[in-house]
Amino acid sequence: MSLIRKTAAELGAMIAAGDVSAVEVAEAHLDRMAEVEPKVKAFLHVDREVTLEQARAVDARLRAGEKLGPLAGVPIAHKDIFSTHDMPTTAASKILEGWRPPYDATVTKRLREAGLVFLGKTNLDEFAMGSSTENSAYHPTHNPWDLTKVPGGSSGGSSAAVAAYEAPLSTGTDTGGSIRQPAAVTGIVGMKPTYGGSSRYGIIAFASSLDTPGPFARNVLDAALLHEAFSGHDPMDSTSVDAPVPSVVEAAKSPDIAGMRIGVVKEFSGEGYQAGVLARYNEVVKLLESLGATVVEVSCPSFTTALPAYYLIAPSECSSNLARFDAMRYGLRVGDDGTRSAEEVMALTRAAGFGPEVKRRIMLGTYALSSGYYDAYYGQAQKVRTLIARDFEAAYQQVDVLVSPTTPTTAFAIGERADDPMAMYLADLCTIPSNLAGNAAMSVPCGLADEDGLPVGLQIMAPVLADDRCYRVGAAVEKALESRWGGPLLKEAPSL
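Above: the chain's sequence. Below: its structure in token form.
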């Protein structure tokens, strides 16, 4: 088996044993990127020499006897919203084109310390605002399963890179489903940790009360290893949870769910869901029962109001966060010819530097926060958020985890929803409640839809700081389905 088809855990073990060097593993993935990247377009920035320099440094650390983590030497694709001092960080926006931060994000720093090797920075919807990666200011990314389809968003570059075997691992951020939705439509594993369980420091902010860094991988154990590598309390992030990281790796290695209580969310099925998605979902619910779990239907009525609440809260926070891009301190500056005021330069820069979706959300958020409308819009949305959290609390008194489809449909065609923001927003229908409540949630592949042969994801939701339950259930589903399929779902994306 070629190096690119090894799991991250296998690659880490091989590098630690001296069977292969970090440089050889990096070169294998860089060669794969050269082969398929013209079709997939998952990356915004790649520097082969910087990557190989990092790999050589890891090999040197290992030769010197330094004790590194289980992923030392393993390549990773890094979403271009995490600050990196040695690579540009643009958030896929023209307003930050070419910007190099003077520091690393905490997640970036911890991955470097653990010895992971960065292959480059991946594409995303501008400032993480979108569900298709079409909102990137640079180019859309293509789904490796069908190059005419989207890879999801906002972390579509990260999901496509893993699905295309360009990288065994990648990072993403999940604000309303931006890890789980792309993972579902590209047939890989994506995890949104408990809010505050992974540091936001050094991540370009979209919505500060929702943004959550998390891992992508092609299997549950690899995702758990990455999750554990960068999670934990960070004093640089005021919202960071000062609590031990849940034992996610142990859970991924213990896929026994006998006796667990699993709740099927009543509100997340039926009308508006693709038939092939529901078919795979219903099959996996029966599979969970066959593995010894007790499955019960659970009603969470406030979940139906999550989408409108989210699209008031997230844009409001975006309006506040993006005010820092003022053409005065860093990034793009337009019209500064000595004749214009600072206000004129700021307006011209934002007009040129922000894309249509970012402008739309800034305007929505600014309106929702404006005098006379705050209580009617933002205030009411926060009350709905409280009701959603209470629905979760009530559900978790009955069950250990909740399950649902990750997305109502499989991947849609590039351009299909570009002119219909509401249709685009509906891609996150099932994922948003977990962001509003701050609890843990994962997507694992559960098969292919009959209509189009594209991947379907199962969403597993767990209480705050019970991330390990997602991994336990996810690993059980993965093991049972791989036994049924005779191997992993993602053996090779058909279009490549």
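The chain has one domain: 3-267+278-298+394-485.
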